[in-house]
Structure prediction request, 340 residues.
Amino acid sequence: MIIAVDASGGEYAPHEIVKGAVKAAQDFKIGIALVGKKEILHVQARRHMKDLDISIVDAPEYIDDAESPIEAVTKKQNSSIVVGVNMVKTGKAAAFVSAGSTGAVMFAAFAMLGRVEGIERPAIGSIITINITSPFLLLDCGANPNCRPKHLLQFAQMGNIYVREVFGVQKPRIALLNNGEEEKKGNALTSQTYQVLKASDLNFVGNIEGQNLSKGMADVVVTDGFTGNVVLKTLEGVGEAFLKLKTIGQTGSTSDSMQMDVGFGSLVKRIDYRESGGACLLGLNGNVIISHGRSQAKAIRNAIGMAKQSIDRNVCQIIQQYKFTEPNVQPSDTNVDANA
Prediction:
């Protein structure tokens, strides 16, 4: 197993990326292909290459977050993102992990790997662990700001497969993120999606409100990419605030014993984006993990671990084999964005 890692992407590249990749190679006993500027990576990684299965793939170009993803991917064929995705396409790598430009990773993966048959929109799925006994998969987290009911159904179907295979939950509970629990609540998209999910063969448990996300009521929570991204970034912001409070506690303003009493340290760990490391891009013909742009070594190590889990459990292949069909309910698209 070889996992390609974008060693040029992210705020802390290449040093922290290399550190995380080395730790992953040690912990998971897998091959790592560091993709980036060869001369720099050789200096960073050479002392580990004798003992670990680490190689370097030269990719001298870099795509910045400020660049247009489509234009950058098209013009920079020797960028770390394009080279890394191409390794998955050609079978040289089983997965690609990147903390670089999310838009560029998504476009490169979409253009080069292609969608799974029956999937109209790939989705970004993030594992949310605010309830340590009942983590859930939230999708879409940003790939599709405008959606139709059939897209959310496909997100639910892919999420069902992922949670079943990776978490080992035989009948994952699927919930629809909404502003109320009642069946008729929400806007046109959520009310129509409710009927589609209800008529499907999924274990649909109904609507879930934001304040109930931490209560272990669902294994998969589906929503449009705009809403999902807002939820994800809100949780990240809360996590960063708690991390600052923890730092204050360590400097003496709050006692360590008080933190232990309220389980503060455990809470910080659960909502820290560095713990899960990344989000899976589902619905494409290949394994791609998108990491946070501020990922340091721990997050990269965990993102590689997420990629390994997807490979070990054949998530991509199972999604490819699934027959994506819609139930008999055909909701009207009235009032649903025609551009979705």
Summary: The radius of gyration is 20 Å. The chain has 13 helices and eleven strands. The first helix runs from residue 15 to 28.
